[in-house]
Amino acid sequence: MTTPHTSVIRILLADDHALVRRGVRLILDREPDLEVVAEAGDGAEAVELARTHEIDLAVMDIAMPRMTGLQATRELVARKPGVRVLMLTMHDNEQYFFQALKAGADGYVLKSVADRDLVAACRAAMRDEPFLYPGAVTALIRNYLDRVRNGEEPPEQLLTAREEEVLKLVAEGHSSKEIADLLFISIKTVHRHRENLLHKLGMRDRLELTRYAIRAGLIEA
Questions:
Q1: What digits encode the pLDDT tens for the residues 165-205?
Q2: What are the strands of the beta sheet with 57-60, ordered from one edge?
Q3: Global pTM?
Q4: Which residues contact 204 (CB under 8 A, 6 or more apart)?
Q5: Which residue, among 49, 56, 58, has the nearest Cα to 109 in the 3D structure?
Q6: How far is residue 73's CA from residue 96's CA, in Å, rounded to a whole number?
Q7: Cα–Cα distance between 221 and 219 in angstroms, integer?
Q8: Alpha-carbon span 101 to 107, nearest angstrom
């Protein structure tokens, strides 16, 4: 019986130190599903090689001459949206980490633990799963909590607290008059909230609102 062919992940490796590239290449080329097909000494060369080579993944240092890894990542993501990018860096630094995410990187791996994490990070990136070093997870959680404390609503918070109340009561089957009585507002205000809900959520009727309320955990199915 023949074994199914595993597709090989074609990798572009960019770092301005030849010694580092050699070490990283050794780690990657040991794996049957990973192959380094091109090497660059700076960000500009990496972007150029990505044009002339078929690649699936770029493994990129941050601090490089001519064009940094962050600048090169922005270029790569814009030109070749299908290509995944991993930052491989010595910087255990929140600022660089957030800049890498903004630039479009799919993961952030520290050089100090590359032998342990890099292979897993490459495979995760190709599965569309972000790979973060442990300190990065802490940074993300702290950043989120700071935003919440500062009163910045999470972007997914589409509805106001009052709209959520109206949505819950609509989904539970209450009439506009009952909702008005329960919330001590006028029927006209209930109708306005209802219109806003339909418009914000892109829905047509009460049935769709009810389904949404169940998904959002406002009412039991």
A1: 999 999 999 999 999 999 999 999 999 999 989 888 888 88
A2: 34-40, 9-14, 57-60, 84-89, 107-110, 131-132
A3: 0.64
A4: 198
A5: 58
A6: 13
A7: 7
A8: 8
